[in-house]
């Protein structure tokens, strides 16, 4: 018989659950402010709501070519530096890299007409130029994350002379793989009507969409599992830190969202070489810098095949893939990732800088 | 507040200890039906003789505690956890009752699955207030909460109960037909235009409810399929001699099966349609509301959304222009600095016997190299920036020329 529980065992399980819950509540009351971002940085450039952060490592960078991290517009970039023992930024600094990161800020209603062209040929290009000037170099190393990876690919195709090496992490390239849930869902959404009606896309709408990717785990099981970790204050705090990040979703600038969903998700134009950004038609063959493409094998947001499609799509004759056994977030915050991903990036970059 | 909380927690823990000790004693004595109901502990006593009321206890405890918490991420997460805890307690109650009756295996799992399936079938038949949220093992309610947050973020709080919630209207075809007839009635009289607009808005509202109903029904259908899949999984376990040894295992099995079924369902054309229709219907309704609001604002001589958008669009255009001008200015400034530096440089030392000549103006290498680089075309500022050298780098930038195919002809 599959279900083998005596009444006293059921009682014991319920009792334990309640005890953990009560203890957890006490810990929760004492958890205090949930801080995020642990590595010191200096803001070296600002423009509108954008900030360019320069991280300070404990030692001088050994790689003289600076690295710029281009994060997605979705969610906040502090995920890469979320806590002391879970920091991709720290790992990269330890690997000898000189790390910069773009914090795009929180768009408001006045930003609804920001386009991808504004983001890439405006903000991103200005940040790249700022770093080039500060370091007296011709080109920088770009590290793009998720949507930021797609943006980095586009930027590298438009400005190949400014990109020394390109690292893409969990970056969708082919948006029409059979397992791409997000892409499947938006095919029937009238994006023009959506943006015309509400302008910026609320972060809450993105949250709702992302939660629906795995509703039973993300809206149910996760919180029941939380009871098990609440007894330990530090573990609870770490849980809450991730929880804060997950729901810290900036609104999306309307026009950028319009083009990104229509061109990338609905029509898969990036792979077809048909994305138009400002005066440029994006041809991935124009990406000539060495490329390191990192993806997660259990990624529920960006299926690995969506990232693998980059192989052979660029004009680079130096293409490397790195597969990580984990998920979309785990690739930045898991203990295993800390030990493997930043050192691998550092080694790959240093060999090419 | 912390002190108060600690006292409260201590009392709660003490009460729990007494309560669970009593339950444990009864359980060991093998006296089903003799509940330690009461014990003077609010929320922990069973409403009916012999039946545990753990879900109710948790709910009452949360009601007592939650007013003293500070709103924020922590409380949100804890609230979700309590909601899941109630679901878990409910599972425990069912399991406990079934085990006490002595027909454990069949009653605990089969009865539970029968109950879930019945709930989903009810949802498919007619969606009524709270029905959907009550099923799906708590996930249905979380999904609804999440959708309500979407509506709140758009200023549509008034519509958040529509669908499976508060002012839900009947969804029978007959009712829909009647509503459409009413909304199709020709408008007449002085307020004809206003009446027409309101009729159109009501129609959009009805469309949204229909889309929401279809969406929830699709989910309920998936719920039925999940229960069926769970039955098959349990049967397979039975055949393989595998056992479930804890409530958590049972819960995790349920989640695992649901995610598998959902993953397939979410990739169907049916889901694509109901998802798109829901968003599209909501946006059509929101668009209608926006138009009405603009009409009201205009009549009150207040700025309308349309006017604000026009201002924002102009502002963005000015930002682009400003950015282009700033880059030009920086480049000019650099050129001027370079020229000034060259002029200030000491003249070459002339041979004593020769009449000194004016010092040649040195060509500033960075400028030369910069000018040799290919122009960077920018859409909004093409005419001005195309002739400018790349901005800022102090070093001589020698970028590779972009492929001709990259640029728009």
From TrEMBL, chain A:
Taxonomy, superkingdom: Bacteria
Pfam families (UniProt xref): Abhydrolase_1
Residue ranges of every copy of the AB hydrolase-1 domain listed in the record: 66-332
Pathway: Biopolymer metabolism; poly-(R)-3-hydroxybutanoate biosynthesis
InterPro entries: AB_hydrolase_1, AB_hydrolase_fold, PHA/PHB_synthase, PHA_synth_III_C
Keywords: Acyltransferase, PHB biosynthesis, Transferase
Name of the featured protein: Poly(3-hydroxyalkanoate) polymerase subunit PhaC
